[in-house]
Amino acid sequence: MTELRLTLFFIMIQFDRFTLSNGLRVLVHPDHSTPMAVVNILYNVGARDEDPEHTGFAHLFEHLMFGGSLHIPDYDEPLQMAGGENNAYTTNDLTNYYLQLPADNLETAFWLESDRMLSLAFSEKSLATQRKVVCEEFKEHYLNKPYGDAWHKMRELAYQVHPYRWMTIGKELSHIEKATLQQVKSFFFKHYTPCNAILVVAGAVDTAQVKRLAEKWFGDIPSGVLYQRSLLQEPEQRAARHLTVTAPVPLDMLCKTWHMGARQDASYHATDLLTDILGGGASSRLYQALVKEQQLFSAIDCYHFASSDPGLLTIEGKLVKGVSIDKAEQALTEQLQRIVDKPVSETELQKVKNKTESMIAFEDMSVMSRASSLAYYEWMGDAADMNRELGKYEAVTVGSLREQAQRIFRQENANTLYYLASN
What's the CA gap between 92 and 35, in Å, rounded? Predict the structure, then answer.
């Protein structure tokens, strides 16, 4: 295993970087082992950048961006004709659009992406269509689905002032239902600008070719005004919070969260490994103790969101029918106290380090994953940090794990949601 670990550690992702005069950052990752090219555009805008009275706009734009632009009425058709496919995702921190197509048709991707950065084809009809799609998604996944509103309630419980208190879909359905064309336009021209974006091109490409195409298709787009965040920061939580909800769900659910450091904090890698030790699959501590041995939970997970601002470490699980939620929470508390009181073994720590290294290595096998990761690390501050990530995990010690456990799993730092079955 040591030999594998060292082999993975020295795999370096090579890239070139340049910036256009309008502020668009461009990264190029040549990989001629594939005939394909990936174009990834990350916009530095997410749900945290929304007006509290007009939420869900970042996610709405994930849909609007495929509805036609200034000179191209249908985004998907020319991409499909060029042999390409695309997708996108929105988080509380950022919005990411990506496509893959044969490298011979790379210019088609530049044409498509530059035109919708230049300006969408704003119309009442397009807005009405996408607004309906998003509203149906809101109803299907968050209003009518069992436990669908659990995270709406947890976020409002855990956050008092920070905009992480609402989800990317939006705080209320009415915010999307009432979105106006002028509001949508203002949001677009504020955030979807060259100086607020990162373009990554990877695959069977070379830097000179990408630079020529970037200048040709993106160079004349007005820079826009560099977006500067001024968000309300969440104060330190000084008292435990609790909420009980009763709904027609099949099983009681326990969900607990604790405030943790931001993705860029030095504490992040220890916290990430800590969640894996606690809830990373069937061999994890919580699964072994609370599902397999004590049979209190039918399933239990521990995870976090790796958010740009201080986020939440989460443990949630559905109880075995007939088990008291108080008993289940007490058993969970005992397991957490063990990891607070006693350091994990070197063997247990090395096991999750090996798992993490393997996961990163397998992700890096895909040119699309590499393009996405380069954009993400550049957004965080420096794409070269992608090549330093394994070293940061290797530097985690049993002492730093225990330190994070003691810092995070404090009673006054906890938020607890009882989601109880009404039938």
Answer: 34
Distance from chain centroid for Cα 229: 19
Q: Is 8 domain-assigned?
A: no
Residues 254-263 have pLDDT tens digits of 999 999 999 9
> Average pLDDT in the 67-82 region?
92
Whole-angstrom CA distances from 97 to 223, 290, 390 are 19, 40, 26
pLDDT tens readout for residues 290-346: 999 999 999 999 999 999 999 999 999 999 999 999 999 999 999 999 999 999 999
pLDDT tier at 364, thresholds 50, 70, 90: confident
List the structure tokens of 130: 């996408």
State the CATH number of the domain containing residue 249.
3.30.830.10
Helix extents (H) in 192-324: 207-218, 268-279, 285-286
Asked if residue 324 and residue 265 are part of one domain, the reply reads yes
| Angstrom distance (rounded) from CA 178 to CA 184 | 11
Cα–Cα distance for residue pair 10/139, rounded to 1 Å:
47
Whole-angstrom distance, CA of residue 68 vs CA of residue 104? 24
Q: Is 187 helix (H, G, I), strand (E, B) or coil?
A: helix
Instruction: Assess whether 60 and 139 both reside in one domain.
Output: yes
Determine the Cα angle at 89 with ends 86 and 92, to 5°: 165
> Taking a C-beta distance cutoff of 8 angstroms, is the pair 354, 6 a contact?
no
Token match 């504020």: residue?
A: 190
Return the closest-CA partner of residue 316 out of 167, 159, 151, 138: 151
CA–CA distance, 179 with 1 (Å, rounded to integer)? 55
Stated pTM of the model: 0.94
Lowest mean pLDDT among 10-19, 71-80, 346-355: 10-19
- Yes or no: say if 413 and 259 are a contact pair by the CB < 8 Å rule: yes
Domain enclosing residue 309, as ranges:
241-421
Residue 63 above 50 pLDDT?
yes
Question: What phi and psi values does residue 154 have, to the nearest 5 degrees?
Answer: -65, -45
